[in-house]
Each structure stands twice: as C-alpha cells, then as structure tokens.
Write a structure and sequence with these properties.
The chain is α/β, with parallel strands linked by helices. 46% of the residues lie in helices and 18% in strands. The protein has two domains: 204 residues, Response regulator (Rossmann fold, 3-Layer(aba) Sandwich), CATH 3.40.50; 159 residues, Response regulator (Rossmann fold, 3-Layer(aba) Sandwich). The protein is built from 17 helices and 16 strands. It is globular and about 65 Å long. 47% of the residues are buried.
C-alpha cells in the first residue's frame, strides 16, 4: 500500500509537472509592468472632477493591456495605474507623488489641478518622472520644466472663445462669481483683463468656495445688485448649476459665461435647460462633431457608465501619446528621449479623440476647440473656434500682468 501510494504521488506530481510545462504563457504574463501614478481629488466637493480625470487614464490603460501591452525595443510592457486622493490639496499631491516614487518609480504621474501641479514642478525633475498637468492655468507653463506636458489649452483662449460669443450677444456689463481654488482665481483674473480689453465692464465680483458653500444667495445678492448683463462662473458643474438656479429664483434673466470646469451636459442634469438659457460654455465632449470622439464617447458610456467629459478624454489621449512616444523613442526609462519623441507621434491615430496635433516648446498640447450655447431651452450647434490665431498673438504662457 505504501509503495502504491508513493507511486501514485510520483505519477501525480509528474503529470502536474508535464501540465505546468505545457501551459502556454500569455504575453501579458510575460510582460514587464510600467507603473503610472495619479494624484487628484477623489473625495470632497471636487471628487467627481478628480474621478473624471482618473476614468480616462484608466480606460486607456485597460485598452492597452487588453491589446497585449506595448512593445519597446523588442520587449513587452503593460501598465498599472496607482491612484491616491489628494483632496485638492497641493501638500497632499506632493506627499502622494513621493509615495509613488518610493514604491513604484513611475515614469509618468498625472495631476489634475494647478495647485498640485505647481507643487510637483521641480520635484518631478529631481525625482525623475514626466508630469502630465491637466489644467488650463498658464502659470504652470511659466515655471519652465523639461519633463512637463499640459492639457487642455490656455485658460485665456478658452475664456476668450466663450467671451466672444457673449459679446456678439450684446453682453457688456459682466460680473464674476468664481470659486476660490487656484485655477478659479486665475480664471477670474484672465476674464476681468480680457473683458475690459474688449471694451466691457466688470460691475461686481463675489468669489465663493464652491466646495464649501451651499447657500449662494448672499453672493448672488451682491452680484445682481450691480445689474450685470451676464455672470461668469468657474468651478465644478453641480455647484455652478445650483448658482444659476438660485439666480433665476432671484429674478435674474441675463446670461452666463461658463469657464471650462463648468460642463453643460452635467449642469443640465442638475438644472433644467430652460433655466440655463441663455448660457455659453465649452462644448460637451459627447456633442463634439468629431468621428473619433463619437466612437470614444460610446465606449466610455459602455465601460465607465458615466457621461464622457473633457477631463476623461484628454487624459485618455495623453496616455496613448506617452505609450507611442515610448515606442518611438525605443525606451521606457530615458525621459529626455521620450519627451523628444512626443511631437513626432502627434496625432495618435484612432486615439486622437480630442485631436491633439502639436505641442509647443513649453509642453502645451494644441488641439481643436468647440464652444456651445444653450438657447431657447436647447443645446445649440457646436461652434468651431480655431486656437491658432490666439496662440500666435498671445503665446502658450500668456497671462495678464
């Protein structure tokens, strides 16, 4: 019995050995993992904004890995995203980045707010990672950084496109009711400068912390007392929509000019289009007349189960830009070579959903742009605005003095 038992065990182990040897090894299993860091607000008032950015990044990584990863210099690589909540606090962004560097040594870290990005500048050069800063705050580019890329485009350009449409509608007396975070402060400053430069007047300014304030009536009372033709808002979509609802309840019949953080389609879920009329802002991603964007939007809804946003779309496209740059550079570690390779991979084929077609010497990605009006209780047709003349006149790092 003992001999039979020993023989049975040896036979079983032999079979297992044969089985183990004969099992195929998948490309993903053989691939080396490249870590990618993400630090952004995943809790609090800006949690949805932070998650939108992360969703786009993760969707791109999932697609790349499902396709077997990438091949660089004859070796296969897949990617893994590590994300940490920084609660929109620059100090936490730096702490998170330090943790990423210590544990994972990522070649790329994504951060979606100007305060955090400013905290990571120089630190990224010291610790060795390319920083993707998702912000339209031009102060980022003014610092000068050899391993920085930024999307979307300049806040000045975004504001100007919206303001031009408002100006054509006859709005001349503008009021400001922006949030108080870093990007909102810059948006407020840029709007005031450009509006006055166009010949307009700023009749009131009542900044409010969109993440903490729940009752906007005191701020609106101050603003509406100045009798503006239109109010400029800059902050997350839900509180922006609440501000408009409150303004209508107080009898305001004028217009709203909306900064890039205000998403018209998200706002329409909180406040009826009739109350949002008349408004002008950035065209929602899903409504952009771009074939690649339409396909992406459909896949985003199916996979992520949310409305696709500019944040998600840009981070998705930038991740593909990084992978193509690695392939072109023939390295996953030499950051200088990867940065040099980026302009040569633009646009990134079927993944150029926002149409990023070039990069300035400062690291600013340039793409197409569409604005949109809400008029008569409906979304109007997208308005194509060419960024070329703006950048030729002002440059990537322009900001009011």
């Amino acid at each position: 019995m003992k001999k039979k038992g020993i023989l049975f065990c040896l036979f079983s182990l032999g079979c297992l050995g044969v089985m183990a040897v004969s099992l195929p090894v998948s490309p993903a299993a053989a691939a080396e993992v490249i870590n990618v860091g993400y630090t952004g607000p995943l809790s609090g008032g800006a949690a949805k904004y932070g998650k939108n950015n992360l969703d786009g990044l993760k969707m791109a990584v999932d697609e790349i890995n499902e396709a077997g990863g990438i091949s660089v210099a004859g070796k296969t690589y897949t990617f893994k995203v590590h994300s940490l909540d920084d609660r929109y606090r620059p100090a936490d962004s730096v702490t998170n980045a330090r943790r990423f560097v210590e544990l994972y040594k990522p070649p790329f870290i994504f951060c979606p707010h100007s305060g955090g990005i400013l905290g990571l500048l120089k630190f990224n050069e010291q610790e060795g990672f390319i920083l993707h800063g998702y912000t339209d705050n031009v102060a980022i580019l003014q610092q000068g950084n050899k391993w920085l890329v930024k999307a979307p485009m300049s806040m000045g350009f975004y504001n100007y496109g919206v303001m031009e449409i408002g100006w054509k509608k006859g709005w001349r007396k503008g009021a400001l009711l922006c949030s108080t975070h870093e990007a909102a402060k810059m948006a407020e400053k840029i709007f005031a400068f450009l509006w006055k430069d166009m010949g307009g007047e700023i009749v009131a300014n009542a900044p409010a912390d969109y993440q903490k304030v729940t009752d906007f009536y005191p701020y609106l009372t101050k603003v509406l007392a100045a009798k503006p033709d239109a109010i400029f808002l800059y902050g997350p979509s839900e509180p922006s929509a609440m501000i408009i609802s409150s303004a209508r309840e107080l009898g305001f019949k004028g217009g709203f000019m909306l900064g890039s953080q205000c998403k018209l389609d998200e706002m329409a879920k909180v406040t009826p289009l009739e109350k949002l009329t008349p408004s002008v802002g950035v065209c929602p991603v899903g409504m952009m007349p771009l074939p690649l964007m339409k396909d992406y939007s459909k896949r985003h809804r199916e996979k992520v189960k949310t409305i696709p946003t500019s944040e998600a779309a840009f981070n998705y496209e930038v991740m593909y830009i990084f992978t193509e740059a690695m392939k072109k550079a023939g390295t996953v570690k030499d950051l200088d070579k990867i940065m040099v390779a980026i302009p040569g991979v633009l646009p990134v084929g079927k993944h150029a959903i926002r149409g990023i077609h070039s990069m300035t010497k400062e690291g600013q990605f340039i793409s197409g742009y569409f604005a949109m009006e809400i008029s008569g209780g409906k979304f109007a047709s997208p308005i194509n605005i060419d960024p070329g003349p703006w950048y030729k006149k002002y440059g990537a790092t322009w900001a009011p003095k």
